[in-house]
Amino acid sequence: GAGVSQTPSNKVTEKGKYVELRCDPISGHTALYWYRQSLGQGPEFLIYFQGTGAADDSGLPNDRFFAVRPEGSVSTLKIQRTERGDSAVYLCASSATGTGRGEQYFGPGTRLTVT
Amino acid sequence: QKEVEQDPGPLSVPEGAIVSLNCTYSNSAFQYFMWYRQYSRKGPELLMYTYSSGNKEDGRFTAQVDKSSKYISLFIRDSQPSDSATYLCAPKENMRFGAGTRLTVKP
Q1: What's the CA gap between B33 and B94, in Å, rounded?
Q2: I want to staple B44 with a disulfide (CB 3.0 to 4.6 A). Which of A59, B1, B38, B50 is the partner?
Q3: Residues of chain A contacting residue B99, judged by C-beta atoms under 8 Å apart
């Protein structure tokens, strides 16, 4: 079946603009995760959804970042007033019920560049 | 102090070599550890996971955990150019990744 998909694959925006990044998890996966990865670094955890609710949002760096998953499937990561430091690859992953936080399947990422 | 520390490398070995990739962790409550492989410009993919202490083998890959020293290792036997990638470790309990070690296997 289809894996995790993310759109757009690349996004270039100007400093101060608002962006939305979309994640389509594997069908039937109830857990969804967002990470941010800078060059030469491992993925940095942002937020974890179990169903529609955010089970752990401790990784969101500040209140410019917000994520939703209104129907327990597709998720959108929203970044307000973007800054150059937000430039990174944003990764989404999903996992099936009962497997805990491991065994995550990652999408290809959205490369965000803030100019 | 980060919960998981990993030497970012880069590590370069000839084809056929045995590769040792390592992580250290700080939280003794962690029981499960995951190894992911990430090719350039791709998302990470799960390689294997291991529970607590001991070894787990899967083909050319062996994962090892030493709880007494809080040390995690991934060994790759008969390394191939297709193994060239970044290897990431993370505790299953919180999925906070290390920085990743970039490996190049030269033909």
Answers
A1: 10
A2: B38
A3: 40-42
Residue range B39-50, pLDDT digits in tens? 999 999 999 988
For residue B64, give the DSSP letter: E
pLDDT band at A83 (very low <50, low <70, confident <90, very high): very high
Nearest chain A residue (CA) to B8: A40
DSSP state for residue A86 in the 8-state scheme: G
Judge residue B52's burial from the number of C-beta atoms within 10 Å of its C-beta, 0-12 exposed, 13-18 middle, 19 or more buried. exposed
**Minimal C-alpha gap between A71 and chain B (Å):** 24
Whether the CB of A100 is below 8 Å from some CB of chain B: the reply is yes
Shortest distance, CA B78 to any CA of chain A (angstroms): 26
**DSSP assigned state of A43:** P
Is some CB atom of chain B closer than 8 A to the CB atom of A49? no
What is the per-residue pLDDT for B67?
87
Q: What is the sign, positive or negative, of the torsion defined by CA atoms of A35, B88, B33, A9?
A: positive
